[in-house]
Amino acid sequence: MQYLLSILLAFTCASHAFAQRFQTAPIRKHIEYLASDDLEGRGTASLGEVRAANYIAAAFREIGLKPAGTKGYFQPFEVSFAIDGEAHDLTGRNVVGFLDNGAAKTIVIGAHYDHLGKGFQGSSLSPDSKNKIHNGADDNASGTAGVLELARYFAGNNVKEKHNYLFITFSGEELGLLGSKHYVEKPTLPLNAISAMINMDMIGRLDAQKGIIVSGWGTSKVWGKLIPDLAKRQNLKYTVDSSGVGASDHTSFYLKNIPVVQFFTGGHGDYHKVSDDPDKINYQGEASILTLISELLEGLDQEATEPEFLTAGNAHSGNTTSNFKVTLGVMPDYSYTGKGLKIDGVSKARPAEKAGILAGDIITKLGGEPIGTIYDYMEILGKHEKGQTVEAELLRGAEKKVVKVTF
C-alpha cells in the first residue's frame, strides 16, 4: 500500500509539473545571470549591456526566433548622456526576435533590459551610489526573463497562432525610453501591422495582498474584456491605470496609436538601489503572471477583430519621462487607487526622509497644489528647483500633518 501511495504521489507531482506552463527554474536562471555582478548593472551602452544583449540574442536563436533587428538580432541606436558632467555619444542596442506565423498582424511583447550600471547613469536612490553595481533584478531582469520565457512557450507550443509575435528587449529605458522611442521611429516591421503591445516592467515582486498593477487599461476595450477572468483564474488581484502614458516602454507605442497594456508588481524599498537582487524575487509569482499574459495572448488570438485603439482618459498631458531637477526620494504605492500620493518607501538622506515623511503616508498637497493622482505629483515636481523649500500636506492614518520639504 505504501509503495502504491508513493507511485500515486509521484505521478500527481509529475502531472502538476507538466501542467504548469512556466517553471521557476528557467526564470531564476535568466534573472540570476542578468542581475549578476558580472554584468555590472547593465548600464546603457556599457560592456554589461552588450553581454546582456548577447545572452538574450543567444536565447532567441536557441528558441528559433528569426533575427528582426537591423544587425541580426540587434538594433543599435545612438545615445548621448553625461558622465561626471561631460556629455558622451555612445551606442545602445535593442534585441529583437520574430516568431513568424505567416499572419497579417503582429503583437509586440517587450521589456527593457538595461538598468543603472554602476550608478553613473540614471537615478540611483542609494546614498553614495557611484561605482556601486545596481543589479536591477526586479528592474528589469524580471521583465526580460518574462520575454524570454514567453518566447520559448509560443515557439514550442506546436500551435500556429493567428498573430505573429515580435519579442523586443529595449535598452535606454532608464535614460528616457530611448530604445523604444528609437524602435517606433525606425521600426523593423511596419507599425500599421502591429496589433498591440504588451510590456513587462518589474514583475518580480508579487505581493498577493497588493496584486498586480495593469496600465494601459483604457487604450482598448479588449483588456477589460479578457483580463478580469484570466486574473481570477490565476487568483491574482489587480488594480488598473487607464492611461497609456507612463514611465516605461509601452508609452512609445501608445503615442503611435497602438493599444498597449503593461504588467507591474509595484514599488518596493529596493527600487533603483544596489539592493535589488535576485534573492528577493518571487519566482512563483512571476510564473503566475506569465501564465496570465500567455492566456491573454491566446485570448487576443480568438477575438473576431483586432484590438481597437482608444485614446485613454488621462488628466496628465505632460511627459512622464521628463528629467526632473528635484526629487522627494520616495517610491509611490502604484496599487493605491484613492486620492493623493501614497508612499510605499522612503530613501535615506533624501528630502522626504529629512522632512519626516514615512512609508504609508498619503501626500495630498505639495507646494500648495492638490495631488489627485501620481500624474499630478509629477507635474508639480517638475515646477520646482533644487534648494526650494515647500510645504507638503499629508495624511498619516486619520491624522493630518504639514511638513516642510527642502529639495
UniProtKB/TrEMBL annotation:
Question: Which Gene Ontology biological process is one annotated for this entry?
Answer: proteolysis
SUPFAM superfamilies attached to this UniProt entry: PDZ domain-like, Zn-dependent exopeptidases
Q: Which residues form the signal peptide?
A: 1-19
- CDD domains in the record: M28_like_PA_PDZ_associated (cd05663)
Keyword set for this entry?
Signal
Q: Does the keyword Signal apply?
A: yes
Q: Name all Peptidase M28 domain ranges.
A: 94-294
Does the keyword field hold Signal? yes
Q: Which Gene3D superfamilies match?
A: 2.30.42.10, Zn peptidases
UniProt GO molecular function? metalloexopeptidase activity
Any one Pfam family match given in the protein's UniProt record, by short name: PDZ_2
Q: Which InterPro entries match?
A: M28_fam (IPR045175), PDZ (IPR001478), PDZ_sf (IPR036034), Peptidase_M28 (IPR007484)
Q: Which residues form the PDZ domain?
A: 339-405
Q: What is this protein called?
A: PDZ domain-containing protein
